[in-house]
Amino acid sequence: MRILAADVGGTYLRVALFRDGEMLRKVKVTTPRSGGRLRIAEEIYNLAMDFGVEVDGAGVAVAGVIDVRSGDVVKMSNSPIKSFPLRGPLEERLSVPVVVLNDCVAAAWGEHITRGVDNLVYLTLSTGIGAGAVVNGNLLLGKDGNAHEVGHITLDYRGRRCGCGGRGHWEAMASGSAIPSFSRELALEWDGARTEAWRAAMRGEIDPSALFSFWRGGDEFAREVVSELAKINAAGISSVINVYDPELLVLGGSIALNNRDFVELFLGGVGEYLINRMPSVDYATGGEDAVLRGAAISVLRRPGVLDTILRPPRGDSSGFEFAR
């Protein structure tokens, strides 16, 4: 059985071809940041056509708020294209069933099937922050399919604005997209040495890669920023554990996967906020491909909850054209 899988992230769009659960081919491009509401569906379709084979189904995972019944994306915080249909135009052009899930929900389901663990949370620390949860073997979706938006837990009700428009959210402080502006805010209040990291932060040029490089190099200001981020992540993760009570916490996303020394730092502070017992912690199966794997597995081993809530897609696919 050949499955098309897509991972629509805030920074990258990954599309892959699977056969019987094994990835055969993958392409990674920058997620489109301009165009109409059909631009992202069109890009997925065009990349799929480059594989040159027919598929039996498709799974699409999106880093955003979705309407799981229709397969529409309601809000994608870290993209200029905020809302768009996926299931409708893709089913029309591919002529196969398409499952659309939040990216972390898809990854959580994939980890559940792969590991055989009935209580787990998949948490991504990347451009944004999100999670998916399986509780007692059941994939949690909620009324619209969004029972997972942990990045929008309010950690400071007076805090900085999030990309979603809310205030004081975890994602607004500790996500990859927030680190440059968060670092600059700390730089404006900093009364220590004007280090190289401080100067980069004042220019708004301290992305996650630069920050962790400065930190490992012993930069005093970078140590302060990383310390604050560790405290924020410890509070956020403890909230996730207190709510879902998983036996396994699976970490994914570029910040977690590429900075495991930082992960060890913030995990060390989680216990300060916990009510529930600390779960085991591991990294995502397949690394950055965890979401793609989950999207494919959601077609091969479709979560039963989808069969009770799906409805015909309502997304307008009129005007969808081949861009070839």
As a percent range, the share of helical residues equals 25-40%
- The domain tally reads 2
- What is the CA-based Rg, rounded? 20 Å
Query: What sequence of helices (H) and strands (E) makes up the elements?
Result: EEEHEEEEHEHEEEHHHHHEHHEHH
Distance, first to last CA: 27 Å
The tally of strands reads 13
Determine the CATH topology of the largest domain: Nucleotidyltransferase, domain 5
Key attributes of the depicted protein:
single chain; 324 residues; alpha/beta; Nucleotidyltransferase, domain 5; 5-stranded mixed β-sheet; 12 helices; 13 strands; 21% strand; globular
Structural summary, described in words:
It is a single chain. By secondary structure, the chain is an alpha/beta fold. It folds into two domains: 127 residues, 2-Layer Sandwich (Nucleotidyltransferase, domain 5); 171 residues, ATPase, nucleotide binding domain (Nucleotidyltransferase, domain 5). Helices cover 37% and strands 21% of the residues. It contains twelve helices and 13 strands. The strands form three sheets. The protein has a five-stranded mixed sheet, with helices on both faces. Helix 1 runs parallel beside helix 2, helix 5 crosses helix 6 and helix 7 packs across helix 8. The radius of gyration is 20 Å and the shape is globular. The two termini are 27 Å apart. 50% of the residues are buried.
